[in-house]
Write a structure and sequence with these properties.
The complex is a heterodimer of chains A (168) and B (104).
Chain A (H helix, E strand, L loop, with lengths): L2 H23 L2 H17 L11 H20 L5 H6 L15 H10 L3 H12 L4 H8 L3 H18 L1 H7 L1
Helix pairs in contact in A: 1-2, 1-3, 2-3, 3-7, 6-8, 7-8
Chain B lengths: L2 H15 L9 H11 L6 H7 L6 H20 L28
Classes of the chains: A mainly alpha (168), B mainly alpha (104).
């Protein structure tokens, strides 16, 4: 890969990777670190991307996802990780919306979801990826993606119940 | 629950999710990534002071052995014979580096 190819790929996909990382971590600084690490990895090992297996943006989202989960594991290594990542029994209590702006409430609700539910939701709702694309980017089974997305939406409905009630 | 209600709720949730917008990455991110990824061109004289190279371990051992051997060779060489005044002859067995035969 030449320097020009790399620059082109970076300009085309940096925003997608950044938005995903930001919505997964809730932090602009961490999102920028993830974007940097992601593209540095791509620059050093361009052979890791196989165009027959999918699009470059999907590959980069997969790399970003792994970097985020790695950070998350490092920060919370003393906790029960596998349970936290899936957490099927998770059910959040409604937020105190009187204090919060609508956007902030959504942000908090999304960030409070377990990571695997959050990534499925972010990729489906914000990046408008199909279930198949999400499965490819995250290396998960299609059924698992469907289930995570279903649980994520259910949890969000619960968390944002007062706002949804206001809207209707 | 009716399918219509379900669709309505999904649309409502989707509309609500759109309220949370992600900011654009800062312009400094471009510089950070390019600096980390692309090779930098620095002047050769600057490289002499600030640059570094990676040397394989086996090469370091080889060079160290070569240096030791050379040092040992130099140390093992016989010392030069003291010079004597021009015109004096010395026995042929005495070590002497003077180019003219028999004179030190």
């Amino acid at each position: 890969m030449t320097e020009a190819d790399f620059r082109d790929a970076f300009q085309r996909h940096k925003s997608t990777v950044y938005r995903f990382a930001y919505r997964m971590t809730g932090s602009t600084a961490t999102a920028e670190d993830v974007v940097q690490d992601c593209f540095v990895m791509f620059w050093r090992k361009p052979g890791a991307f196989d165009s027959r297996r999918g699009e470059l943006w999907s590959f980069l989202l997969g790399v970003a996802r792994n970097l985020i989960l790695k950070r998350w594991r490092r920060e919370r290594r003393h906790e029960a990780l596998s349970h936290d990542l899936e957490d099927e029994s998770y059910a959040g209590s409604p937020l105190d919306l009187a204090e919060l702006e609508r956007a902030e409430a959504v942000r908090q609700a999304v960030l409070s979801l377990p990571p695997l539910q959050r990534e499925a939701l972010v990729l489906a709702e914000y990046e408008e990826m199909s279930l198949e694309e999400i499965a490819a980017a995250t290396g998960a089974e299609l059924a698992a993606v469907k289930s995570r997305l279903h649980r994520a939406r259910g949890n969000l409905r619960q968390l944002l119940e007062p706002l949804l009630a206001l809207k209707s | 629950m009716q399918p219509n209600d379900d669709r309505n709720q999904s649309a409502q949730l989707r509309g609500l999710l759109r309220k949370w917008e992600a900011p654009e990455p800062s312009p400094a991110l471009d510089q950070r990534v390019m600096k980390a990824c692309t090779p930098r061109h620095i002047a050769w004289w600057r490289f002499l002071f600030t640059g570094y190279i990676r040397v394989p371990v086996y090469l370091v051992f080889f060079l160290a052995a070569l240096l030791s051997f050379t040092a040992w060779q130099v140390a093992a060489r016989p010392a030069h014979a003291p010079c004597v005044a021009v015109g004096h002859t010395v026995p042929p067995t005495t070590g002497c580096d003077h180019p003219a035969p028999g004179i030190c």
